[in-house]
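Morning run. Coffee first, then this:
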Amino acid sequence: MTNNNVVCRAKFIEIRRVRRLKVPGNVLVKLGEAVQPEDVIAEAQFPTEVHSLDIARGLGVLPSQAAACMTRDLGTDVQQGDVIAQCEGTLPRLVRAPAAGKLLDWQNGRVILAAGGKTECVKAAMIGEVTEDILHFGAVIRTQGCLIQGVWGNGRVGSGLLSLLDSSLEKPLDTSKIDTLEQGQVLAASYCSQQDIIPLLVKKDLAGLILGSLAPELIGLAKDQPFPIIVLQGFGRIPSDPLSVSLFKDCAGEQVCINACERNEFTGARPEVMIPIQEGEPEKGLGSRAELALGQWVQVGSGKAI
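And here it is:
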């Protein structure tokens, strides 16, 4: 039995993640290449505007005659004001490009101009190695280590050395120990309810924040922060789960990666924390898609998008 609402806590497993574009583009990594969370592994550019230009009407000719009047070929890049079609005669007529873009298609006397531009990028969002190339779309990345999945993230990725201000992960995060934080650390804490703490963490140039739970009124503030924030259990004051506490204690001072992506019920994607471990043999049969077994630690979500 598999359950898309089961949140995984795993001490040491093999982790594979597919990173792919929504539209075809260029893959920027190679097989065997080591990647970091912020590395862009694939990107695609697509237009933000599409213009349908009636060449036949603009030149005063029949649609069947318009193609012969084109001065630019399909697939050509043009600038705003460039002449793209012209008809000689007693009163010469011409059609100019209304915007910079590319001539994409021709249909019944009309040419399609794609203008503007937007770039879609896919980041590795983890520390690992490229094990498979997905032609024109992305790659599969592999690592092994600890995996801790959450229920909410603010959409950012990052990595740094794990720091625990409270080794028990039971006390709420407050301002008393913020000064001890070093630049580029990832902080793990039990609960945050004070609005003034998060701006202080920004000044400390924090690499990431892992919370057991978060006060609901701070969700909007957390979304706007420049570093990844992940909530493992939910909103309100919820006690830290024993397995997460144990994993963080064992891995304090180690390099950790946070992918604070939005939870996606269709793809199974979840915000998650990965702690790479290079040596040893990963356990088998664990993970968010694994069969459930007696004695296995899990956290069951509501099944609703957050």
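The helical segments are 55-59, 63-66, 197-203, 219-223, 242-251. Good start to the day.
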